[in-house]
ABC protein subfamily ABCH
Amino acid sequence: MELQENAQPPGSMVTEAVAQNAAVLIRKAYKRFDDSTVILRGFNMTVPKGTIYGLLGPSGCGKTTLLRALVDRTVLDAGMIAVAAKRKDNVGYMPQELGLYNDMNISETFHFFGRLYNMNYSKIKEQEKKLIPLLDLPSGDSIIGTLSGGQQRRTSFAVALLHDPELLILDEPTVGVDPLLSQTIWNHLIQLTTLHKKTIIITTHYIEEARQANIIGMMRSGVLLAEESPTELMRKHNSSHLEHVFLVLSERQQKQLDLQEVQEPYPVIDENQKRLPLLETEKVFNSQRFLAQLIKYLIWNKRNIPFLMLLLALPAALSFICHAVTTVNPTGLPIAIVSDEQSSCQLPKDYNCTHSGRPLSCTYIDLLRDKTFKIHRHQTFDSAKQSLLRGKTWGILHFAGNYTASVIQRIEEGQATPDGVVDASTVDVWLDMSNQWISNLLKRDLIFLTLEFFQNLLSECGYSPQVAYIPVRFEEAIYGDNIPVFGHYTSAGIICTFTFYLAVLFTVGSIMTEISVGLDRSLVAGMTVLEVVAAHGVIMFMLVGTQSFITMFLTYYVFGYPFHGSVTLIIILLFLIEVMGMAYGFMLSVVFDKEAIATYAGIGTVVMMFMTCGVVWPIEGMSTVLRSIAWAIPVQPTVESFRSILDRNWDITHPNVFAGYISSTIWTIIFCAIAYSVAKQKKICV
Ligand SMILES: Nc1ncnc2c1ncn2[C@@H]1O[C@H](COP(=O)(O)OP(=O)(O)OP(=O)(O)O)[C@@H](O)[C@H]1O
């Protein structure tokens, strides 16, 4: 007999197991979750080979924890376990919470677990044909999520039997099953032990049905009260009911506990003690198991087409919205005009240039209209001010009564123009400065418009228009446009943060579902964390990659946003952002126990990133402290890198570009390291 043990065993343990022909042997086992939840306190148990062992005990006494220890899903604090089965495919485990995927049908579920147990297609089909009628299951194409609780439980039982294991560990297989079918299950279990020499450990709340077991272990307060055949137990206690025997034994134990003045001390736990797994560790990567996981994700996507469509429509919608919202600078801004010369509208007598004959304030207003401003005329300054105070206009422009004459005089007399004339030739402007973007645009447009107005006038009057130029010449922009568009600036940040966010969201959803539904059962069946991560990665890159492609295609091809850099560099950068998002998603999934909290944390992070990554406001405009640590904020360097490639066509040798690649790689390593250590600490993947 070969035994695997989870601690370096004294030779006597193996000898004892061999002597007792035991399939499972537990000696002096201790386990607790905290001081108030002591599960095992010097627990002993012997399961002979080829028997049904019924483990009975009150709810919460630790039966599930004990079974989990047998399949390496939790470790003892002290003591020894020996299991005769060597490999994971020698053990069939049916957990209490089923561990099935609601979106798969029965047949797909068999194929998924069959592949994990290295079974080939025909063997799985053969078992499916046998198990469906045996357990009275509906047809193989019935979706698990639509089955009744009892049918789901039977499917879960069928999965445990699928690979014909030598040791079956069943956690309450008959809960919610009708009595006839429950009897069929027991008959099958009896057949398995008598004809096929299988060993079965079963927990049940129906104490009387455990009569059919060969041995009963009655568990209470961390120890076994009795371990004998049901008939022997009932004979010894002169009772015809196991319920009654359990009651008698429990009362006896309680009396003893009450009499004990000091409880036996819990052994000092050696945290550094290395516990070996009971069952052979699987190869860290197996292509068949990886494929099983991948197919499972594909099935999930196939069954959730509307959700998939939504995922793909989301980036398209975002691109459209961003384009529609930010693509042009604000236009049609309403402005109040008070012109004192409008009423007279008379031409000056000494007017000697080729002017059309209209008052110049009218020409100025025409130009404002051409530049899409909406003109609101007011007779008095007070009424104009009221319109601004009520938010109907963004500014007030006032022209003096002798504006035209003053402007002409100013042009003709140049430096000799009297102060009063200079004053009258100047347009007074009052602005609503409460909106920085609009007021800055207004200021900029009014300055350029006034320059244009004067240049036109100088030309008409036969002067060189260049005289009206401010002594600065803005040549063609080296990078970007001379009149920048806000949407072009923000596109890089939006794409980077959105790609990161989608990867986080998708990973959190997928991993949390795995953890809450079936990861435990898959791991018992031999799946490794690497295979889960790899399969998730493939699906995520397909989905998030398609999303990124849609966003990029719409933004830079359909909407024609400027794209000057290397497509390859951008694709690699987006890939690294996705990997970083995936790593962050893993971290959130293991740090938080609830999917909703992990999702909120993901959303919160992205909102903060939006503010700190230069998406809406440049890093150069942030507080000194934030600016000095901006390089260390995840995603921020990738946004800068993206922008530098896109707008400036810089290559990887430029520090701005390089920083994005390095930063995303380092953050990926940090997130993975945190996720790994938290998972280890929480024993999510022991
Ligand atoms: N990971 C854990 N962390 C903290 N406490 C835990 C953990 N797992 C189980 N427990 C606690 O350990 C105790 C035993 O739980 P367990 O599920 O093993 O009992 P059980 O005998 O199988 O109960 P039931 O018959 O109701 O299924 C319970 O009080 C439970 O809350």
In short: The first strand starts at residue 4 and ends at 5.
